[in-house]
């Protein structure tokens, strides 16, 4: 029942990723909860959030379904999105609706396999599982491993996808045609037009993060456009 209800709520909808790094002005659960509430007012159907403290605050503030993850660096692995059972257990305790985890081919900490982690989640909870992938092959493998949905989150972020276009709509389209589970568009979507195009290409739902929730990045885009135009106008007058 939970799986069907969550999927029905996010189908064809906007999911907003509310995350801030420690060096960013809006870092902190209070700020992220307010940002998530603003996203809800704007129409977001669910929130993607990082860290237990942010997840708890956002759940209380919004009541929306939460796609939870924990970013954790390990010295022996490049995988950092919910890398191990330790992070999974914390997310289960936080009562997230969906656990997002790295589902790429990169070696995980403790040499745990994706299949092991999927089985662990199934045994411990009724959370849905989102596999964050960067290639078509990873998506198909993650589906076989048992995840409930795929997300194109990591395209251009893994070492072997640095040259992929952003947002990676071709990857989304290919997966949407071949996968039998929902494919979520996520990663570098910066305009409403790109979000709408993702749905047209077969996305089950669309996740947008920085273009909505990182005002310093949004401000810089306007600043650069204004600065460059002002310089051109000044040069034209000389």
Automatic annotation (TrEMBL):
It catalyses: an N-acyl-D-glucosamine 6-phosphate = an N-acyl-D-mannosamine 6-phosphate. Its EC number is 5.1.3.9. GO terms for biological process: carbohydrate metabolic process; N-acetylmannosamine catabolic process; N-acetylneuraminate catabolic process. Keywords: Carbohydrate metabolism, Isomerase. The keyword Isomerase applies. It is an enzyme of class 5 (isomerase). SUPFAM superfamilies: Ribulose-phoshate binding barrel. One of its GO terms (cellular component) is cytosol. Pathway: Amino-sugar metabolism; N-acetylneuraminate degradation; D-fructose 6-phosphate from N-acetylneuraminate: step 3/5. CDD domains: NanE. GO terms for molecular function: N-acylglucosamine-6-phosphate 2-epimerase activity. PANTHER family: N-ACETYLMANNOSAMINE-6-PHOSPHATE 2-EPIMERASE-RELATED (PTHR36204). NCBIfam families: PRK01130.1. This is Putative N-acetylmannosamine-6-phosphate 2-epimerase. It comes from Sutcliffiella cohnii.
């Amino acid at each position: 029942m939970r799986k069907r209800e969550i999927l029905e709520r996010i189908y064809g909808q906007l999911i907003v990723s509310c995350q801030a790094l420690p060096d960013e002005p809006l870092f902190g659960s209070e700020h992220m909860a307010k940002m998530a509430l603003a996203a809800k007012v704007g129409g977001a159907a669910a929130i993607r959030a990082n860290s237990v403290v942010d997840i708890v605050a956002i759940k209380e503030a919004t009541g929306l379904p939460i796609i939870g993850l924990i970013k954790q660096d390990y010295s022996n692995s490049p995988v950092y999105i919910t890398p191990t059972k330790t992070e999974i257990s914390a997310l289960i305790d936080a009562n997230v609706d969906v656990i997002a985890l790295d589902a790429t081919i990169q070696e995980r900490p403790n040499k745990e396999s994706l299949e092991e982690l999927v089985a662990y989640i199934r045994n411990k909870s009724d959370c849905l599982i989102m596999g964050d992938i960067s290639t078509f092959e990873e998506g198909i493998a993650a589906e076989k491993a048992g995840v409930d949905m795929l997300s194109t989150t990591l395209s251009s972020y893994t070492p072997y996808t640095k040259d992929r276009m952003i947002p990676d709509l071709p990857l989304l389209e290919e997966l949407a045609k071949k996968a039998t589970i929902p494919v979520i568009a996520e990663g570098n979507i910066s305009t409403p037009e790109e979000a709408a195009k993702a749905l047209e290409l077969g996305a089950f739902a669309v996740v947008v993060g920085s273009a909505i929730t990182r005002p310093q990045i949004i401000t810089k885009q306007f600043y650069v456009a204004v600065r460059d135009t002002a310089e051109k106008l000044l040069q034209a007058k000389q």
